[in-house]
C-alpha cells in the first residue's frame, strides 16, 4: 500500500457501492476475456443507473452501445469506473477517467506487486497517479465488487446471492467468490462485497470503516492474508466490531523471528496463531476455515443476539440429538433439562416413546402441526437462550426422491409427493416465524440441506425465504451458535483503566541498559541481569544472591534462609532446567555446598544464583513479545519446565485491564490455576496485569528488546505472583553499527 494517502471518510466510499452511473473500461465481446464476464454480470444485476462499456472495437454489448475511448464518456456523469485493460494501458486510462470527472476507479487488472519488484514499482506509480488526480482507487488485482441494494455486480464471479445483511471484504478474489457461491446455494442474503486486491491506496481498513457505518450491513466477513499497517488495522477492526459482528479468517501464518525463539515466549508466539488470538480481543470472531467463516457470518447476519449459553435441542432423530449434545458441551455451552411444564405439554402431543429430556427426541414423524407446537413450547419456556432444530425438510426431501422413483406416479405416489411438499412448506413457514423472535433465537440443521435438490426443497425454501440459514450438520449449527455466545460474552466484559506500577524513570534506565547491551552485540540478558533490570521496573522477584564459588553460595544461603534453590548462570545459558542446572529444596549447608560444586563443574556456568525457595504449587509463564503487526503482545499461561509441551497460553493486547485479562484466561485449559486452587487463594489478577503492562512500557521505549520471558512465575498461597527466573531477548546491533 502506498505511503501517500488521501484523507478518506467512510462515507466517501459509498460511491463504490451506490454510484449514479458506471463505466467498464475493457468490456469485451470476446467470451475468453474477463471484460466479457465482468460487463455481463454488471448488466445482468439489475443496476438502476446507466452502464457504459468502453472498448476500442465499438459495437454493442448485451444491448449497451460500446464507447471506443474513455474520452467518449459523458462529462461528470460517471461516478465509478471498473478497469480491466492490460497494465501498460492502465495509467492513460486512469488519466482519461479523471479528465471526464470520474471519482472512483476499481482496477481489476493484475501484474502489479504480486509479480515482483517491477510490478511493485508500477503499483506505486498507479497509487501516486490516483493521489495526484484526487481519485479513490481500489485494487489493482481484484476480482470486483457486489452491491445488492442497487443491483450492482461488476465482478468476475457468477454467484448471485440473494439480498440480505452479510457483507464481505476479502484480500483474495476467489475466496470472496466461494463465499458468494455458498450464499447463493444456501439462500443466505448478501449486502455488499469488495475484493481489495493489492490495496495500492484503499484497503481492508478503509472499507471496514465504511461497512461499520453502512445501514444495510448487519455482519461483516473478513478474509485477510496480511496486514501492512498494524496500528491502522487494530483501530479499524476495534471500531467496527463495537458496532456489528465481524468474522475473520486469516490465511497463512506470520513466522516468528529466529532470535525470538531463544525464549519460551518467543518460541510460543512464533508457532501459535498470535494474530487470531489478538484479533479476538479486538472484538472479532476468528474462525479456522472457509466453511466456518460462512457458517458463523451467516448466523450473525440473520440471527438475533444470544443472551447466554443455555441451549435446547429439538430433533426428529435420536442420533442427531446425541451429536448435537456432544458439540454443545465441547463448545462450552450448556444443555439444561426440560422444565416439568414443557414435559407435560409435550406428553399431550408426542408418542410415549419420546425422550422427555433435552435434547427433545420427537421419536419420528409427528406432522407439521405437532412439530411446530413442540418447538414453540421449547422456545417459549424461558429455560433456553437459543434452540437448535434438527431435521427440517426431510419430508420434502423424501418426496423429491419418490418423484424420481421408477414407480412414480403409481399407487398414488404423485399425491404423496404433493402432500409431502405442502407439509414441509407449512412447517418451514411456521418455524421461520418462530425463528424471528429475538428472545430465544432458533437455528436449523438438516442433512436435507446438503442434498442435490436442496434449493427446491419446499421446507428449506420457506426457512431461507425468511433469511434463516439451514446448516448441513448439527455440529456446524452448534459451532455457529457458539460464536454468537462468545461475542455476547465479549461484549458483556466491562472495562477499566489498565493498572500501572513502574516509574517512568526506572523504565527509561532499564531501556538505556538494554540499548547498551544490544550495542555491544549481545542477544540476551540472563537471569541475574534481567532480574535486576525488571525488578527495578516493578516485577516482583524471589530474593536471590550471586555466588562465585561454593563457599559464597553457602554464605548466601545462610543470609536468605533455608530452603533455597541453586541455579547455574552464564551468558550463553537459556532453559537451565533442560540441562539439569536448577536444584530445588536444598535445606542445609552440606546440600548447598555439594550442589554448588556440581553446578560450577558444568559447561557454561560462570556463577551460581542462590534464591529463596518460593512457596506455591502453581507455576505460570508471563511474557512479552514484539510483533510486526500488533507492535507487541503479552502472554500468560501454563509455566514451568512443561510450558512448551503443554502449550496452553493466552496472548493479550497491552496494556491490559483486569477484566480483559480475566476474559482471556477463561479460554485456557489451565484456567482453574487462576482461581481458588487446593486451599490457595485466587491469582491476584491486578498484580499480573501490572507485570504485563510494565513489560509493555519497557518494550515501548526499548526498540532493541524482542522478548521478555518470566518463567516460572509462582503463585503463592495468597495468590500473589513471584518471578523466579527471567530472560530478555535482544536484537543485537549489526557488526560495525551503533
Mean of all residue-level pLDDT scores = 89
Identify the CATH class of the domain at 10-217: Alpha Beta
* Annotated CATH homologous superfamily of the domain at 10-217: NAD(P)-binding Rossmann-like Domain
Q: Can you tell me the overall shape?
A: flat
Extended strand count:
29
Strand content: 15-25%
Low-pLDDT segments, ≥5 res: 254-272
The amount of helix comes to 25-40%
At the third CATH level, what is the topology name of the domain at 10-217? Answer: Rossmann fold
Give Rg in angstroms. Answer: 32 Å
Distance between the termini: 31 Å
What is the correct CATH architecture of the domain at 10-217? 3-Layer(aba) Sandwich
The total of helices stands at 24
Topology, element by element:
Blueprint: H1 14-17, E1 22-25, H2 34-44, E2 51-54, E3 60-61, E4 64-65, E5 80-83, H3 90-99, E6 104-107, H4 117-133, E7 136-138, E8 145-147, E9 163-170, H5 173-186, E10 190-195, H6 204-213, E11 219-224, H7 230-243, E12 246-250, H8 264-271, H9 274-281, E13 285-287, H10 290-302, E14 311-315, H11 318-330, H12 340-347, E15 360-361, H13 368-380, E16 386-390, H14 394-403, H15 413-435, E17 442-445, H16 458-465, E18 470-471, H17 474-492, H18 504-519, E19 524-525, H19 527-536, E20 544-547, H20 550-560, E21 564-569, E22 582-586, H21 589-600, E23 607-612, E24 618-627, E25 631-638, H22 643-646, E26 649-652, H23 658-665, H24 685-701, E27 705-715, E28 721-723, E29 726-730
Parallel strand pairs: 1-2, 1-5, 5-6, 6-7, 9-10, 9-11, 11-12, 12-13, 14-15, 14-16, 16-17, 17-18
Antiparallel strand pairs: 3-4, 8-10, 19-29, 20-23, 21-22, 21-23, 24-25, 24-27, 25-26, 27-28, 27-29
Helix pairs in contact: 3-4, 5-10, 6-7, 10-17, 11-17, 13-15, 14-15, 15-16, 18-24, 20-21
